[in-house]
From TrEMBL:
Protein's organism: Candidatus Nealsonbacteria bacterium CG08_land_8_20_14_0_20_43_11
Matching InterPro entries: DNA_Rep/Repair_Clamp_Loader, P-loop_NTPase
Signal peptide span: none
Name of the protein described by the UniProt record: DNA polymerase III subunit delta
Alphabetical list of Pfam families matching this protein: DNA_pol3_delta2
Superkingdom in the source lineage: Bacteria
GO biological process: DNA-templated DNA replication
Length: 294
């Protein structure tokens, strides 16, 4: 089920109906916004068939099987794209987590973007466009995705089983990301992961400088995992700010932080998240600098 992103949908639908779709699109936005769901729904619209319950000969989907997408996978993917559509007007080829392509795989894929072979619509999906070759980014038409309004997320059926208080809590944590809201409700491991991040934050706040740097060394290196940690920290400090303003009971671990300190930390987390998602910054150094402010 597609949640939000109406403007993006209307724009692509209009292009499709007018026969003016680009050869390749790059869907960009933070993790868990619904970019993959959007791409799959677009494929359904173009192929005019259900594609998730059974294989469709003109639907191609590629995602990392391990820590990367290798050149052999891309070569096979490109070969399938080059074949004539079997039943539809065109093939739809989606690459999720496109930044996971190795440099060799990206260079191989670039040739297809420069010299299209066959009738295929290509959709690359990523939260980290800076990890793609600039030439790949420039060959695609970018579609940017943004956090979804709360009223849109609450329409999802999975939220209807919750009490109003639970829904409010999930929406606060999700911060406009439908996928994050659904995971928190449907996946026990997502809730456990968040609990571990919050426990880690409590330890960091009480740790020495050496302890904080040691914590950074133990953090995962994958950008998606770092983003989830920063999003959880951001939620915690925003909640602490609300508490400090007297709207809710103040949490003990933040009681020593002044209003100005909380605001500065929130700003620094947002800046670090931006650097992590949009630049080739030294992530460990950026996180160490962030924890200096804690």
């Amino acid at each position: 089920m597609l949640v939000g992103h109406k403007k993006q949908w209307q724009m692509l639908e209009k292009s499709w109906q007018a026969g003016r779709l680009a050869h390749a699109y790059l869907f960009v936005g933070q993790e868990k916004l619904g970019k993959k769901t959007f791409a799959i729904e677009l494929a359904k619209e173009i192929l005019k068939e259900e594609i998730t319950r059974r294989p469709h000969p003109d639907y191609l989907f590629l995602e990392p099987e391990t820590k990367e997408i290798k050149i052999e996978q891309i070569r096979d993917f490109i070969w399938k794209m080059s074949l004539k559509p079997s039943v539809a007007e065109m093939k739809v080829a989606i690459v999720d987590q496109a930044q996971m392509m190795t440099i060799e795989a990206q260079n191989c894929f670039l040739k297809t973007l420069e010299e299209p072979a066959g009738q295929a619509l290509i959709v690359l999906i990523t939260a980290y466009p800076h990890l793609l070759l600039p030439t790949i980014v420039s060959r695609c038409e970018q579609i940017k995705f943004f956090p979804v309004p709360v009223e849109e997320i609450t329409k999802h059926p999975v939220l209807k089983s919750l009490a109003e208080k639970e829904i409010d809590e999930v929406l606060r944590i999700a911060m406009g990301r439908p996928g994050a809201a659904i995971d928190l409700i449907s996946l026990p491991q997502a809730r456990e992961k968040r609990r571990q991040i919050m426990t880690g934050l409590g330890k960091v706040l009480n740790a020495s400088l050496a302890g904080r740097f040691a914590y950074v060394k133990e953090m995962p290196e994958a950008p998606a995992a770092v983003e989830e940690i920063l999003n959880t920290w951001l939620w915690c400090f925003r909640r602490a700010l609300i508490n400090k303003l007297g709207q809710e009971k103040e949490l003990t671990i933040f009681s020593k932080k002044s209003l100005s300190q909380l605001m500065r930390i929130i700003s620094n987390i947002e800046e670090t998240r931006f650097l992590a998602l949009r630049t080739n910054v030294n992530l460990r150094l950026a996180l160490e600098n962030l924890l200096l402010e804690f």
